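Researcher: Good morning. I'm working through a list of sequences from a screen, and I'd like to move beyond sequence-only analysis. For each chain I'm collecting a predicted structure so we can compare shapes side by side. This is the next one on the list. No need for commentary yet; just the structure.
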Amino acid sequence: MTMKPLSIKICLLLGLLISATSVFSRPSLNNLDIKVVLSKNGDARITETREMYIDDEGTECWT
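Model: Good morning. Structure tokens for this chain:
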């Protein structure tokens, strides 16, 4: 049994829409601020502040 050309086009369009949705919902890093304070003895205190958009699922984020 063969699929009609219109059915094939609809399936391709749905696949494209589903894949585009997953791309837009990926985590994004909006701002990254790194502050380094050096002391006289050579020690360093490093503070990293991130502003990110992540999904509500889980506690880990891979960008």
